[in-house]
Amino acid sequence: MSTVIPAAAPIAVEAPVAPTSSATPVARAGRAIAHSPAALAGLAWLALVIMVSALAGAIAPSDPLAQHLTALLQSPSSAHWLGTDSLGRDVLSRLMHGGGTLLWGAGEASLIAVLIGVPAGLASGYWGGWIDTAISWLTDLTFAVPAFVILVALAVIYPGNTAVLMGVLGVLAAGAATRLVRNSTRTVRDELFVDAARVSGLPTRLIISRHILPTVIAPVIMLSATNMAIGVVVLSSLSFLGLGGSPETPSWGQMIYEASQNITGDPWLLVPPGAVLILTVVAFNLIASTVRDSLPGSPPPTRRPRRERAARRSSAPPTDSGTLLKVDGLVVGFPIGTTLRPVVDGVTLTVRRGETVGLVGESGSGKSVTALAILGLLPPSGAVLAGSAHFDGTELLGRTDRQLGRIRGRGVAYIAQEPMSALDPCFTIGHQLREALHHFGTGRRASAGRARELLVEVGINAPDRVLKNYPHQISGGMAQRVAIALALAGDPALLIADEPTTALDVTVQAAILDLFRDLVATGHRGLLLVTHDLGVVADICDRVAVMYAGQLVEQGVTADVLDAPRHPYTQALLGAVPSLESAGRLSVIPGAVPLPTAWPVGCRFAGRCRYAQDRCSAEPILLADADADADADADPARATRCIRAGELALERAR
Asked: Which CATH superfamily is domain 323-411+492-578+589-640 in?
């Protein structure tokens, strides 16, 4: 059961807007259809066709097979509202009976396509790798096969067997459904709210069923409507050729064929079946187009298969009871060209209970990659090449998602930089909190009360209203508080926050930092704060690790590092921070962080450092304590990656 922590001091929070409407893709599609006269007309026509086809035996004016040889090719009259065909059969009765077979056949094909395509597309898009390759190959095969030729051949082999023909059409149409669902899944799988669900420890089946599947339902509805139209046309075409269905069963295709044989003598016979067939196909297409237009635009999909972890599992090192996280020699690589190059190189740091450690540096230094590697959330192309990361004595690197699922959320929680993206837009705040709490063992009834408690703990003054809101209906600061509440659902011991205040204004930022301070002050939690803002570090962090070009260049107690920096890069960062005491223009660090392909052999900051000498670039420089009487591996000993740290009296630039 989650531990209740003291609530932060009351903070003025923007009142949420009352929820107005659902934001799910299916709801958007429903609203689009309800507001589209063309789609409503299509639905009305299809409802009429289905109702008439179902009740044809009771409401048809005569037997569709009854022949009246004395009433051949008659024009519409009171006795035969749509006239008679070449055998004297009532056209209206045949028209009413002819739609049932077509709709059942088209429905069978569409249903089979969905039953095959949706699971295959979800598996291909979510897991990727060899699963994606195999399913994509089979999908391409369905596109390469001449479907109509195969159906004609099968119609000859199985005459009159509509179920077999439409079953085969459904299997062939499953390729399009698979491709559509796969691409939608790949797009959604890259969203931060899916990563947040993984970090919370939700099993894969729940992530797919609750977070990914709802977003692909609307595109599947669109494709199903299109498949229905295709099925009606294909079955009508086969009937026109005398291959689809039993000759004794009326169908629109047969009626069109019979009308074509008498088109010179009685062209009217072509109008009723042709008009009904065209209107039915147009109705399906109108619905499909309306649903398609309701779907939001999405960025190009990015492959997110399950990566093969390259890190070797090591035994847990001896740790004291207060150590939560110990990262030792972490090396993370990404393919650059044809070579797997390190982008994080030998990072070593420790986080204890009741302590906040800041990981600071310019963009491109490797801060976020370090945090994601610890959690096992690297992109598929990334790999841990060396090192270890122990949480409470348990190795994290090299473990499977199932093994990490027992730790994520319960032991380690992740707070993303963009809370609005980390929350699933398809569900209310309350639903997402209750789902997370239920996953962590809270009962269904208790989860409602606990969800409210979590919102109160993170400083939200109107929890009951926020629980009913969707993510798009709350402000950025409130969304960040909700994201923190979601992270606290499993009562984790370690919080990893990646730039949690970047997009917030100063007032909200201060409130969030106060909240973090209160969470850590309980004594049983630790916080690893990834940021580029030294002001945030000075405000909240007990210790700080400065990162540059994939390496730690300085670490130690925050006050010591900021008051007397020993590495030129730390000094340069401090010089670029505006303050009331500074006069004139701010100091600027020349150049940019070098790319991994351009890392020098020696000091990686040497090209931008005003203190650099030739020996700085001669050989690799180790992270060591500049004090002779201190242990370089001990915390919180000062450690600096600079061979001149003992010589230079670095002061904060003003």
From this structure: P-loop containing nucleotide triphosphate hydrolases (3.40.50.300)
